[in-house]
Design a protein that fits this description.
single chain, 390 residues, alpha+beta, Cytochrome p450, 5-stranded mixed sheet, globular, Cytochrome, oxidoreductase, metal-binding, Cyt_P450_sf, iron
């Protein structure tokens, strides 16, 4: 255990809104041991930006970590050459060129089909009716698991996310995660002969073609699902909510004074869908007066980094005109999110412009409050809206 100063949190309150506690940590104990999480947390942006790159100290290789145990040993839990080899094998499926030439057209087709059904309804929970199915249908294409239902893609992704953030050891959460990974393995088994006979640009197809072993292929597809469903899903619904609650910002976009990508980047900074990334201390290390010992657990709090007052003026404010270059919503080091290009395209090029173009008079349904939750992963739990039905 590190000798970082202790900082206690109220876990339910931290789940409901982690930002007040994180702001206090940044001010009083920027590197703190949080006993309720059993981890030393980094909360300042520049500390995380530099130390995440020190893979010799803060290693992603965590043999006993929840992700390894529950999902298999994927590239996110590997460092150096082992990580880069698997990352490069996946790259052809998620490269900027593939996103531009293949995926964005399919993303738009999914969005158009979903909105065709939504437009006449006049009201919906956009989390469930648009963000969830769009993200899941797009991810089915990208992973190659087109045999799955979009409902299963979302449910299984959420079950894995809950499982790898289950630091309190809830057995029901663990059981749901095991059921989800078994379902994904079955879907992979069904699709292997299909993509072998008809190769494509999906993750499953390019990983099979690379010769990667099946254990790694399974683990890396589960990794893609665990982050590739919730991050764009939560960014779509969250950015929509942010614009509806900040109409002055929506005016900027509609008036051509800002772009949809500005909305995406600022929302990902403001409420980072992935709030935390864990690391294992690999060797004795001292940083800013804190001594770390091998096998200590460290959490890099991306959500806190993106609201660091030293890097962002008035950081709690949603402002699509701000400079977001220092945002680390997708990570900062060698584990920078491999799906970032696809996520940006899905949200900024397809989902947001399509949604606001098709749902005329889009507004919040005040009869039901919007709920937000999470500290390791954070997003809207619902988004009740109304619009002028055709």
């Amino acid at each position: 255990m590190s000798n970082a100063p202790p900082f206690d949190i109220d876990v339910p309150a931290f789940w409901a809104d982690p930002y007040p506690a994180l702001a206090k940590m940044r001010k009083e104990a920027p590197i703190a041991f949080v006993p309720q999480l059993g981890s030393t947390v980094f909360t300042r942006r520049d500390d995380i930006f530099t130390q995440e790159k020190r893979i010799d100290v803060f290693s992603s290789h965590q043999p006993n970590g929840l992700m390894n145990v529950l999902m298999g040993h994927n590239m996110m839990r590997k460092d150096g050459e082992a990580h880069m080899t698997e990352r490069q094998a996946m790259f052809p499926a998620v490269s900027p060129r593939t996103v531009r030439d293949t995926w964005i057209r399919q993303f738009q087709a999914h969005a158009d089909r979903i909105l065709d059904e939504l437009v006449p309804q006049g009201s919906a929970d956009l989390c469930k009716a648009f963000a969830l199915p769009l993200s899941a249908e797009c991810l089915k294409d990208v992973t190659g698991l087109t045999n799955m239902r979009y409902q299963d893609m979302d449910a299984w992704s959420q079950a894995m996310i809950d499982g790898i953030a289950n630091y309190t050891g809830n057995k029901e959460v663990e059981a749901r995660c095991h059921a989800a990974t078994a379902g994904i393995d079955a879907a992979i088994d069904d699709m292997i002969p299909v993509v072998k006979k008809h190769p494509n640009t999906s993750i499953l197809s390019v990983l099979l073609a690379s010769g990667q072993n099946m254990e790694s292929i399974r683990a890396n597809i589960k990794l893609a699902i665990s982050g590739g469903q919730n991050e764009p899903r939560d960014a779509i619904s969250g950015a929509t909510w942010a614009l509806l609650t900040h109409p002055d910002q929506l005016v900027l976009v509609r008036g051509g004074k800002a772009k949809w990508i500005d909305v995406f980047e600022e929302y990902a900074r403001w409420i980072a869908p992935i709030q935390m990334s864990p690391r294992r201390v690999a060797k004795p290390w001292t940083y800013h007066g804190v001594d770390f010992e091998p096998e200590d657990r460290v959490f890099f709090m991306f959500g806190s980094a993106n609201r660091d007052e030293a890097c962002f003026n008035d950081p709690d404010r949603f402002d699509i005109t701000r400079d977001t270059q220092k945002s680390i919503a997708f990570g900062a080091g060698p584990h920078y999110c491999a799906g970032a290009f696809a996520s940006r395209a899905m949200v900024a090029d397809v989902a947001l412009p399509s949604l606001f173009a098709r749902l005329q008079g889009l507004r919040l349904d005040e009869r039901e409050p919007v709920r937000i939750g999470g500290w390791a992963f954070r997003g809207l739990l619902n988004l009740p809206v109304k619009w002028d039905a055709a």
